[in-house]
Recover the amino acids of this structure.
């Protein structure tokens, strides 16, 4: 009996120690922190002159800034109906492609879907495709002007979705938006009015706004999907992008973001989704969160002009200082 007890105790020790089974085992690694990935895209190419550069200067600056920042591919969503022969518009778009960037469809003439019939809207897309398809750098992506996918009109929304599918096009969704078009418009108006802009403060506001929007969207994505996903940043082909994009890229990287290509971002399965929401407009992230019933803010607050415009006046023009 004593021998039996000693044998059981010894066996328990062997099983607990398990020198053969665990001697070479590798401890489980802690979960890898999610990588924050973001692609850069530009709408409305070719865009009209801004407040600081000619269109040719702006394009040269954008290409140089992205080359210096090691951004190998951005996407330019083109309005082919705004390409004026003889104005250098076509050459500037070709220069973006020659620098490694890609081009996609933003309609020919930038209509708002909510104010256009589905038939006319698809016809405008077709005009854009005819111009784009033969060109180097073409991608079969379509981005809705104003991010307007039909508003409350689900019949129209679905007609366009089916029309895109029939044409082999996919939605070139946006997830991160800082309404840079509005900052550009405010700057143009201020310069025309002879006002003095604090350019350092303008740079800081531009960078801060887009960085905050990226972080807001990343957090909302994780809350909605339970995982991170590559983000797609919406910019416009503006003078302020040419001025401040380099600073924005540095700030993103300093905050742990990796800049990836548009091809890489759009390869994520979320960009194949077609969320069903009561109102079809805005960013993909907002739509996914709305569809899943995620509570709390779904839209970055500085995309509200009632928030953004006073910030510009206070910080860039030093008007109406905050109390």
């Amino acid at each position: 009996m004593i021998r039996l007890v000693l044998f059981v105790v010894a066996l328990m020790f062997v099983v607990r120690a398990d020198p053969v089974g665990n001697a070479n085992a590798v401890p489980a690694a802690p979960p890898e922190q999610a990588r924050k990935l973001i692609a850069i895209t530009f709408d409305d190419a070719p865009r009209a002159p801004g407040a600081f550069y000619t269109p040719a200067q702006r394009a040269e600056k954008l290409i140089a800034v992205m080359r210096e920042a090691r951004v190998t591919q951005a996407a330019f969503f083109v309005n082919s109906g705004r390409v004026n022969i003889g104005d250098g518009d076509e050459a500037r778009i070709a220069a973006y492609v020659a620098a490694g960037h890609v081009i996609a469809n933003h309609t020919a003439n930038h209509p708002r879907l909510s104010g256009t019939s589905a038939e006319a809207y698809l016809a405008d897309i077709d005009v854009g495709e005819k111009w784009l398809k033969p060109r180097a750098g073409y991608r079969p992506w379509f981005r809705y002007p104003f991010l307007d996918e039909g508003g409350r009109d689900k019949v129209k929304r679905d007609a366009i979705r089916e029309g895109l599918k029939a044409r082999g096009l996919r939605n070139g969704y946006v997830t991160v938006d800082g309404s840079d078009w509005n900052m550009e418009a405010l700057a143009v108006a201020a310069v025309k009015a002879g006002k003095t802009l604090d350019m350092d403060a303008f740079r800081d506001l531009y960078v801060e706004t887009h960085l905050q929007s990226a972080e807001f969207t990343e957090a909302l994505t994780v809350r909605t999907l339970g995982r991170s996903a590559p983000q797609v940043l919406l910019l416009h082909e503006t003078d302020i992008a040419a001025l401040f994009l380099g600073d924005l890229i540095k700030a993103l990287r300093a905050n742990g973001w990796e800049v990836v290509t548009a091809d890489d971002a759009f390869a994520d399965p979320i960009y194949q989704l077609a969320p069903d929401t009561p109102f079809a407009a805005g960013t993909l992230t907002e739509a996914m969160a709305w569809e899943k019933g995620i509570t709390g803010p779904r839209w970055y607050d500085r995309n509200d002009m009632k928030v953004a415009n006073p910030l510009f006046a206070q910080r860039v023009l030093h008007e109406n200082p905050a109390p």
